[in-house]
Amino acid sequence: MTDTLKIDNLHVSVEGKPILRGVNLTIRRGETHALMGPNGSGKSTLGLVIMGHPKYQVTAGTMTLNGENLLDKSADERARLGLFYAFQRPVAIPGVKLADFLRHAATNVRHPERKEGEELMPMREFRRELKGKMEQLRMESEFARRYVNDGFSGGEMKRAEILQLAMLQPKIAILDETDSGLDADAVRLASQSIAEIGREKMGLLIITHHDKLLEHNPPDFTHVILGGRIVETGGVELANELHTQGYDRIRQAYPDADEANRKMVEKEEAAAVA
Ligand SMILES: Nc1ncnc2c1ncn2[C@@H]1O[C@H](COP(=O)(O)OP(=O)(O)O)[C@@H](O)[C@H]1O
Ligand SMILES: [Mg+2]
Which atom of ligand 1 is least distant from the CA of 228? Predict the structure, then answer.
């Protein structure tokens, strides 16, 4: 059976505030999905709740990977089951070298029963694999000796996320605005890298505003989220429409979702001022 992430009627709140209002989404290994929507529509929330971020409370609905319930599992357990989330804003881990971080993560994902303190994958094997992936992604080997995201530029942070993706080879990966803060050339390189390391071997959910990121990863499905609901699903043509024409048609076609989105963003702005 193809690995399948299935989300039904998902409702999610943050600090008692409803954000997602009935999301349905099925992603199979080998498929590329684009998730698009205006600011504050719930894109990152959906990505984070799939990964099991403790701040987001699921108030209704189901989420399974190959029929197995995910909602009672921690982020760590979900990663071991084959889920991956590339952060919109990755955090720095000063003192931890990227290579050591990757060796830990790769070992844990490949040996889900491993307990902390138990042996890691052999250094030689790891080095050989890391070198191969870094060459494929045209990265300097020096890069892996730096501390995770510490003093990285926006582009370097995204490259580090893509290297993780390449090493971990998840079943389903969510890439949250892997384009944000990058110039056009860097986005093109990211797009190409994602395609090379296995778009076809994974199920991908690409959250993006940037048509360049989809250039090498044409979506099989494009979903539009507004006010915490997926209001339309189409193919690559829907992504193209949104890139060229924006969200006016969508906002007019789904006034209730548009209203909900406006309220969510207003609250966000009020909170930012306070
Ligand atoms: N950790 C959080 N705490 C409080 N509010 C949040 C949090 N995460 C998201 N929200 C709110 O949820 C809404 C959707 O946010 P988000 O999922 O980040 O949107 P998008 O990624 O589509 O821009 C916004 O109104 C935002 O303020
Ligand atoms: Mg976001």
Answer: 14
Low-confidence ranges of the chain (pLDDT < 50): none
Residue closest via CA to ligand 1's atom 25 equals: 264
Q: Are residues 152 and 106 in contact, defined by beta-carbon separation less than 8 angstroms?
A: no
Give the position, in ligand 1's atom list, of the atom nearest the Cα of 17.
Answer: 5
* Per-residue DSSP letter, 201: G
* SS3 at position 32: strand
Please give the CATH architecture assigned to the domain spanning 4-91+171-273.
Answer: 3-Layer(aba) Sandwich (3.40)
Contact 144, 99 (CB under 8 A): yes
Contacts 24+ apart (CB under 8 A), 181-189: 181/154, 181/155, 182/154, 182/155, 182/158, 183/155, 184/212, 186/155, 186/158, 187/212, 187/213, 188/212, 188/215
Amino acid 274: pLDDT: 66
Q: Any residues with Cβ below 6 Å from ligand 1, and which?
A: 14-15, 19, 37, 39-45, 55, 264-265, 267-268
CB-based contact 58:20 (threshold 8 Å):
no
Going from the Cα of 42 to the center of ligand 1, the distance in angstroms, rounded, reads: 6
User: How far, in Å, is the centroid of ligand 1 from the Cα of 5?
Assistant: 22
Retrieve residue 112's tokens: 């889900």
177 Cα to the center of ligand 2, angstroms: 7
The pTM score is 0.93
Residue nearest to ligand 1 atom 18, measured at CA? 44
Residue 271, pLDDT score: 77
Quote the pLDDT of residue 100.
Answer: 96
